[in-house]
Design goal:
The structure is a single chain. The chain has 106 residues and is of the alpha+beta class. The longest helix has 10 residues. It has one domain: Alpha-Beta Plaits, CATH 3.30.70. The chain has a four-stranded antiparallel beta sheet with strand order 2-3-1-4, with no helix packed on it.
């Protein structure tokens, strides 16, 4: 199982709305994530909007490719794009700053 950590930056004036959307993620989005291999997915955010995400997957490349083919992911990413800094017109799932795992306690 691969463990993936990543960073994104939510605009400070959009933090509360971002949290509200994630309190009610669309059921079809949740199904797509599970179906394409995204497990134990968590998001953590500092008060300034720096977002740390974590998930586990058997195959990161396959998980990304699977979600890229999901229509619901396209709708979700388009809706969420205005919430982030530094995407340059892209979608957050295409702009993840992946972090190197340096320690894991089994």
């Amino acid at each position: 199982m691969q463990r993936i950590g990543f960073l994104l930056k939510v605009k400070e004036d959009k933090i509360e709305e971002y949290k509200a959307h994630h309190a009610a993620v669309w059921p079809e989005m949740l199904d797509a994530l599970t179906r394409t291999g995204w497990h134990n997915y968590s998001l953590f955010m500092r008060p300034d909007g720096l977002l740390f995400g974590y998930f586990e997957t058997p195959d990161y490349d396959a998980a990304k490719a699977g979600m890229s083919k999901e229509e619901v992911n396209s709708r979700w990413q388009t809706m969420m794009a205005p919430f982030f800094e530094g995407l340059g017109g892209g979608h957050a799932d295409e702009m993840l700053v992946e972090l190197e795992e340096v320690f894991h306690l089994d």
